[in-house]
Structure formats: C-alpha cells, structure tokens
Amino acid sequence: MNILVINGPNLNFLGKRNIEIYGDETLDELMEWLENSSVGKLHDFKFYQSNHEGIIVDTIQDESLWAEGIIINPGALGHYSYSIRDALDSISAPSIEVHISNINKREAFRAKSVLKGVCIDRIHGQGKLSYLNALKKLTTLKSV
Predict the structure, then answer these.
(1) Catalytically annotated residue among 22, 43, 48, 124
(2) What is the DSSP letter of 55?
(3) Active-site residue, selected from the candidate residues 48, 99, 124, 131
(4) Rounded distance, CA 143 to CA 85, Å?
(5) What are residue 24's phi and psi, to 5 degrees?
(6) Residue 39, Cβ neighbours under 10 Å: how many?
(7) Catalytic residue check, 43
C-alpha cells in the first residue's frame, strides 16, 4: 500500500521543541521508526514536512494518484486550514489525522479540528504510536 505521511508546521523541530510534550526523537527518527516497524515494512512511503499551508495542499494534490492512504499531522493548521480540508476532501485516498500530544488536555483551541469531517479518524495523545496506529487502521481498510 502506498502511504503518504505529511507533517505540518514546527514538526521539523521535534526533538528540540517542548521535549516534555513531544519527546526527544527527531522527525526523521520517528519516520524511520514508522517505516521500519513490522507493519511499515509492508508498505511504500513518501514523507513530507512543510511549515507552509500551500505546499501541503500542493503535496496532497500532487500525490493524489500515488497515495492509497494518508497520515497527516497538520500541527496547528488542523485547527483552521480549510484549504487542507478541501484538498483531502477532493481525493479518493482515506486520511487519518494524527497528533503526538493529547490535544484535548492542552489549550482549548487545540481540540478543534477542521479536518475532522474529511478524515476517517483522529488519533492523538499516543506519542509516536499515533502514527503507527493510523498506519494499522489504513492497513485494515485496504485489506477489507
């Protein structure tokens, strides 16, 4: 299965930023861990990170024919980016929104997601396992 993993703003600072919330692994380490997990070894991945909303929209559109499933950690863009929502809504691949931290136990604005209606699930608060559990769910959908 072709899996597109998109990470939004500030996720390039994993391992440097708010370690008590996000952990000390870098984004590259986390993506390598996902790809080399027992479930990950069964799939082909493309990994993207951008701090820019339009680039994320372009990536979703550009990879729409390749991707059979999308894992997206939109960072703060998940709270207000209707353009990302529309991009996800315009493609056929199922998408799952992930967050490393428990967004319901942080500032109130973090609990809102404009992507909720176009993603099949929202997994958060499980650290890097949020990504793995999203991958497992996408794998289950593909095998049905």
Answers:
(1) 22
(2) H
(3) 99
(4) 26
(5) -105, 5
(6) 14
(7) no
Long-range contact pairs involving 12-18 (C-beta distance under 8 Å, separation at least 24): 12/49, 12/51, 14/100
DSSP three-state, residue 31? helix
Rounded-to-integer distance, Cα 93 and Cα 109, Å: 28
| 99 is an active site residue | yes
Half-sphere CA count of 137, side-chain side, radius 13 A: 18
What pLDDT sits at residue 143? 62
**Residue 125 region, left (φ>0) first, then alpha (ψ -120 to 50), else beta?**
left
Upper half-sphere CA count for residue 62 (Cβ side, 13 Å): 9
For residue 100, report the phi and psi dihedrals to the nearest 5 degrees.
-70, -45
Structure tokens at 70: 């999308």
Reading the chain (144 residues) residue by residue, the pLDDT tens digits are 999 999 999 999 999 988 877 888 999 999 999 999 999 999 999 999 999 999 999 999 999 999 999 999 999 999 999 999 999 999 999 999 999 988 877 667 666 889 999 999 999 999 999 999 999 999 998 765
Domains of the chain (ranges; CATH) run 2-143 (3.40.50.9100)
